[in-house]
Amino acid sequence: MSALDRAAGRNRWIDRLGWAALTLAAVVMVLPLLWTVGLSLKANGELLRDTASVFRMPYTLENYGSILARPAVFRWLANSLVVSLCTTAGVLVLSSLAGYGFARLEFPGRKWLFALVLFGLAVPEQSVIITRHQLFSALHLHNTYPGLVLPGLAAPFGVFLMTQYFKAIPAELDEAAMLDGASRRQVFWKVLLPLTLPAQATLGIFTFLSSWNDYWWPLISATRSEMFTLTVGVASSQINFAQTSGLGFLMAQAVFASAPILVVYVFFQKYIVRAVSGAAVR
Amino acid sequence: MACVRLDHLSKSFGSAAVLDNIRLDIAPGEFIAFLGPSGCGKSTLLRMIAGLETVETGQIHIGERRVDPLPPGDRGVAMVFQHYALYPHMTIFENMAFGLRNAKVPKAEIEARVAEAARILEIERLLQSKPGQLSGGQRQRVAIGRAIVKKPDLFLFDEPLSNLDAALRMRTRLELAQLRRRVQATMILVTHDQVEAMTLADRIVVMSERRIQQVGTPMEIYARPANRFVATFVGSPPMSFLDVTLDAGAGGLARATLPGGASFNTDVPLAVLPTSPTWRLGLRAEGVKVVAPGSGLINAQVEFVERLGDRTLVYLRLADGSAITAEDAGTSRAAMGDRVGLTLDGAVHLFDAEDRAHYGPAPAEGQP
After folding, report:
1. Closest C-alpha among B196, B239, B234, B203 to residue B218
2. CA-CA distance, A172 to B73, in Å (whole number)?
3. Chain A residues inside the 8 Å CB shell of B102
4. Which residue of A175, A186, A194 is in closest CB contact with B85?
5. Distance CA B86, CA B68 (A)
6. Is B161 helix (H, G, I), strand (E, B) or coil?
7. Residues 6 or more apart whose Cβ sits within 8 Å of residue A222
8. Which of A170, A178, A182 is closest, CB to CB, to B83?
9. Is residue B52 less than 8 Å (CB to CB) from chain A?
C-alpha cells in the first residue's frame, strides 16, 4: 500500500467518523420530536399507566380530534398568524427603508444614529420589559394586535443586515438608473430592492420564526384568552405539567403549534440553510 | 448632436480641490478624450457633466441648455460605466428599455429602438438573457446599447475598455470607432490609456493636477506637447530630457549645447524664446538613433535593451549621468554595456525652467 493509498484510507475513515458524529447529532435532535409525535398519537389513559406504551399499538387521532373540538385553538392560531405576518412585513419594510437610508443617504448624525441602532443589538429584552409593559399599559395597547406586533418592529438586526446588503450593491447601479431618468423612489423600488431579495428572505424567515415562537411578551401583553397567541394558549392549557392527565393531548397541541413552522422550513429550506451558513450575505 | 461648453468649473471634496477653473468648448459631433493619470480629476469632470457630482462654481451647457442645475436624467446624456452597471435582475432587453420606459416612450417604439441597437451591436440573441450569463465583452456591448437606445445628445464613456483583456480591448476599440461613425452624437471618453485617446479621439484633453494641461488633436499633443507633463505622459517610451545651454546659432536659430560640449542647431528662432535660467531638450526615442561610437553627436553607454520585434528600444546613459532612450531597428545588435554613438535628428522640444515647451514656427497642415 503506497503512502497515497494510506492517506486516502485515512481520509475515508475521517469521513466515516464525521458522518457518524453527524448522524448521532441528528438522532439526538430528532428523538424528542419523534417522542412528542408518538405520544400525541396515544390515548391519554394508556399513557397514564405507562408512557412506554408509545412503542405499542393501538394508535389514535383522538387527541387531534379534541384540539379541533376546542374553538379557542383556532383563535390562537389566527392570532399567531396575524402577529407573525404583521411583524414580518413590518420588519421587512422598515429594515429595507432604514438600510437604504444608512447605506445611501448623506445626513447629519448618520454614523451616530447607526451606532445607536447597533447598540440596540446588545440590549436584552428582559432589561426593558417592565418599562415596555408600563408604556403599553398607559397607551392601552395590551390585549390588542398592535400591542403584540409593535415591540417586534424594533429590529436592529434587520436594519444592520439590510444596511450591509445595500452597501454591497455598487453605487454605479444607482447612478446608471439616475441617468436612465429614474427618480430616487424608482431607483430604490425597481433597481435596488429586487437585488436585496436574498437578504429579505433571510430576514423574513428569521423574523417569522422568532415571532411565531415568542412566548414571553405575548404572555405579558395578552391576558385575555381570545388574544392569546398559540404559544401562550397551548401553555395555558397545561396547568401543571407533571400532573397532567392529558399527556397525549398536550403533545398533540405541541405538534399542532409547530406545524406552521414545519411548513415554513420545508418551503424555505434552501434560504434557511444559506442564511445560517452566512452565504446570503455576500 | 450638441455642443458642450464647460465654463470655469471648479470642484473640491472637503478641503481637497479636485478641479480648478476648467474651461472647454466641444463642437457638435466631436469625440473628445479626457486623458490623464489617476487622481487628475478627469472622472470627476465627466461625472459633473453627467450630473452625478454637483458643480460648485461654473456652468455646464449642453447645446443651448444650461444643465448643471438639472438632474442626470434630464440632461440628454447617456453614460457607459467602467463596470458596465447593468441591472443584474433584468433581462438585456429590460436593461436597454429601462431608460425609455422611465421617459414614457411608447411600447412599440421601445421595441423598435432596442431591436435596432441590438442589431448594430450584434447582441440580438442575448436580449432575453440576464447580465450574469454574459461575457465581459458582451456586457460591454449591452452597456453601449443601453446608451444608444436613448439617442442622447452626448455620450459619456468612463474608462469603458479598462475591464477587457488586451485582445478584446483592441477589438472593442475598433468597434467603438466604427460605432462613432454610425451614431451621430458628441462623445466624451475618459481614459488613462494614451493609445485609446490617440486612436479614438478627434481632440485630446490632457489633464493633471486638477487642471487642463493641453487640448489638441492627437498629433498636436504628440508632436508639440505644451509642457513637460504632457511630453512625458503621452508617447511610449516617455520623452528623454537633457540639460542644455542655448546661444545664437546660424540664421538666428537657437543653438543647443549638450552636457558633453557637443552642440547643434535647433529649428527654434532664439528671438521667440523667453529668458530662462535653465533649458531642457526633449527627445522622442524615434529621434535618437544608435550609430558607431564616435561617429554620432554624442557617445553613450547601453544600460538596457528592450526588443519589441519590429523595433528595439535602447536605454542609454551619457557621460554626465543623464538618461536617454533611443530607437533602433528590430535587428539591432546593441547589447548591455556597449559604448555607442548617438545622432539626434527628430523634432526639437525645448522646455524652459517652468517646464513650458517652446517650438519653432508651426508646420504646414498635415506635416506635424
Report:
1. B203
2. 14
3. 180-182, 186
4. A175
5. 25
6. coil
7. A79, A142, A143, A147, A148, A228, A229, A232
8. A170
9. yes
Q: Amino acid identity, residue B90?
A: M
DSSP B356: B
Burial (CB count within 10 angstroms: exposed 0-12, middle 13-18, buried 19+), residue A122: exposed
Query: Per residue in B46-98, pLDDT tens?
Result: 999 999 999 989 999 998 899 999 999 899 899 999 888 999 999 999 999 99
| Rounded CA separation B105/A191 (Å) | 19
Alpha helices in chain B (DSSP H): 42-50, 92-102, 107-121, 136-148, 166-182, 194-200, 218-223, 228-233
**Sign of the dihedral through C-alpha B74, B77, B78, B82:** negative
Give me the percent of chain A exceeding a pLDDT of 70: 92
Angle at which helix A156-168 crosses helix A71-104, to 10 degrees, equals 40
Residue found under cell 462613432: B180
The reply to whether B87 touches chain A by the CB within 8 Å rule is: yes
Query: Is the omega angle on the peptide bond into residue B368 within 30 degrees of 0, that is, cis?
Result: no
Helix (H, G, I), strand (E, B) or coil at B229: helix
pLDDT, position A281: 41
Arithmetic mean of pLDDT, B149-168: 87
Distance of CA B360 to the CA centre of its chain: 24
Inter-chain touch A177–B87, beta carbons under 8 Å: yes
- Contact across the interface for B83 and A172, Cβ inside 8 Å: yes
Q: Which residues of chain B make contact with A181, given a CB cutoff of 8 A? A: 73-74, 99, 102-103
**Cα–Cα distance for residue pair B40/B34, rounded to 1 Å:** 10
Cis, peptide link before residue A218, omega less than 30° from 0: no
Q: Nearest CA of chain A to the CA of B72: how many Å?
A: 5
3-state SS of chain A?
CCHHHHHHHHHHHHHHHHHHHHHHHHHHHHHHHHHHHHHHCCCHHHHHHCHHHHHCCCCCCHHHHHHHHCHHHHHHHHHHHHHHHHHHHHHHHHHHHHHHHHHHCCCCCHHHHHHHHHHHCCCCHHHHHHHHHHHHHHCCCCCCHHHHHHHHHCCHHHHHHHHHHHHHCCHHHHHHHHHCCCCHHHHHHHHHHHHCHHHHHHHHHHHHHHHHHCCHHHHHHCCCHHHCCHHHHHHHCCCCHHHCCCHHHHHHHHHHHHHHHHHHHHHHHHHHHHHHCCCCCC
Residues of B with Cβ-Cβ distance to A180 under 8 angstroms: 73, 98-99, 102, 146, 150
Residues of chain A found within 8 Å of residue B67, distances taken between Cβ atoms: none
pLDDT tens digits along A83-140: 999 999 999 999 999 999 999 998 999 999 999 999 988 888 889 889 999 999 999 8
Q: Return the number of other C-beta atoms located less than 10 Å from residue B101's C-beta.
A: 16
Q: What is the pLDDT of residue A2?
A: 67
| Mean pLDDT (whole number) for B233-249 | 89
Is the pTM for the entire model greater than 0.90? no
The average pLDDT across A246-268 equals: 81
3-state secondary structure of B158: strand
Chain centroid to Cα B6, Å, comes to 19
| CB pair distance less than 8 Å for A179 and B72 | yes
